[in-house]
Amino acid sequence: QVQLAESGGGSVQPGGSLRLSCAASGYTAWITCMAWFRQAPGTEREGVAFISYGATPTYADSVKGRFTISQGNAKNTVYLQMNSLKAEDTAIYYCATCDKKYWGQGTQVTVSS
Predict the structure, then answer these.
(1) Each residue of 9-31: pLDDT tens digit?
(2) Does 39 have pLDDT greater than 80?
(3) What distance in Å separates the CA atoms of residue 76 and residue 37, rounded to the nearest whole number?
(4) Rounded Cα–Cα distance for residues 36 and 24 (Å)
(5) HEC sequence for 37-66
(6) Could you tell me where the beta strands, DSSP code E, fall in the chain?
(7) What was the pLDDT predicted at 73?
(8) Could you count the other beta carbons within 10 Å of the beta carbon of residue 5?
């Protein structure tokens, strides 16, 4: 079993920044790819950023150039640096394994003036 726990959400004005963190615990040795997803009210959950260990991260077009996914010094920690935030980035953000087998509980990000 793997447990994922997000932190770092909150409210910010347009143009601001937030950094989300995800800590994995449990049997994490098999994990080779982690991702951030988000879901806004009335929409489907979408993939935002993916990081396969040792490979170049990939991003949704809507966040390219603004968001950066990275791995911490400990393999079981993943971050999402979000800059130049827009109102349309408002959503619940979830950390997950890329195969979507394991999910965190989600953290709310609200971008509003």
Answers:
(1) 999 999 999 999 999 999 888 88
(2) yes
(3) 17
(4) 13
(5) EEECCCCCCEEEEEEECCCCCEECCCCCCC
(6) 2-7, 10-12, 18-26, 33-39, 46-52, 58-59, 67-71, 77-82, 91-97, 107-111
(7) 76
(8) 13
